[in-house]
User: Fold this.
Amino acid sequence: MKHGMIIIGFGNQGEWHYENIRDRIPDIAVIGAYDIRPERGKVIEKNGIKNFSSAEEALACKEADMVLIATPNNFHKDYSIAAMKAGKNVVCEKPVCMNTAELDEVLRVAEETGKVFTVHQNRRWDADYRVVKNIIDSNLVGKPYYIDSRLFGCKGLPGDWRSAKVSGGGMMYDWSVHLIDQMIDLVHSRPVDVFVDAVNVMFKEVDDCNKIIVRFANGVRYQIVVDSWCYIGENRWHISGDDGTALVPIWGSTEGKVIKANIKKINWEHGFVFTANGRSSTMAPRPVEDLKEFEAPIPELPKWEEFYQNFVAVVEGREKLLITHEENRIVMKVLDACFRSMSSGKVEKVDDLGR
Assistant:
């Protein structure tokens, strides 16, 4: 069975979805799209699909049973609800909504209509993330106590809707939400509280850079750093565990390494580090013969196509969602706490996860 899809919002991301669905997802045919900007309508026509004159016309399309929503963030809730009430199954770009209250409205409509609703959390398919997930799931560093997830760019925010607060602009919505979703998928424990240090470099309304520290009930501390004005970055991942340390240096790469001690007992008399102002035994490196270093194993890497393959299978009643409603709610609960911390300058509790 081939499913028809329409796209609401045909900017860079909407067009990316169209091209990749066209070339890589044979079970879905994109019939047409709608964008509020007339110049994007010309792009829609150039791609050879129907250019709808309004969202209402698009949602009334009888040939489509699926809708992709790739609009600015503040429109996600209303379009998601309208699409499901029009009888469509929905893929929504991230962030799913502006806050948890909006998401709960969407999920109630999904329950009422029986339509499938999911979020395009595509960064779960990133190669670097999969290597890290394999390191932790395989217990290669023991129990993690610090996990650092960092991304650096140096071009700042685009000066379009992403720089406007009303549209859900800023790096917290644009990129940190991806890393929060990875975090929830990676750490199987309840997030307890968060602290955020955010900076406005270019735009007064929204954050260009942010650092998030999340504490989990199982003792894991997780730091997310997103900096869009940084010319010298750091390793993409750094994992400290009670039985080793791992790092993955580059976003999108499978390159990584693990170092752990093959001799657990510490000989404190063996070695000092000398500086001009004193010596230290605690900061002296262990002897090389005490350590084991190896390349991080590369797991079988899933392909992005699995996201849409799963969506089709759920619509047809053959599978369950890979990106679950529960996970999306936890992400939004953490995001809500992040914005409270940005405002208060304090550690903020993550709200109870129940509905």
Remarks:
- The chain has a mean pLDDT of 94.
- The CA atoms of residues 80 and 90 lie 7 Å apart.
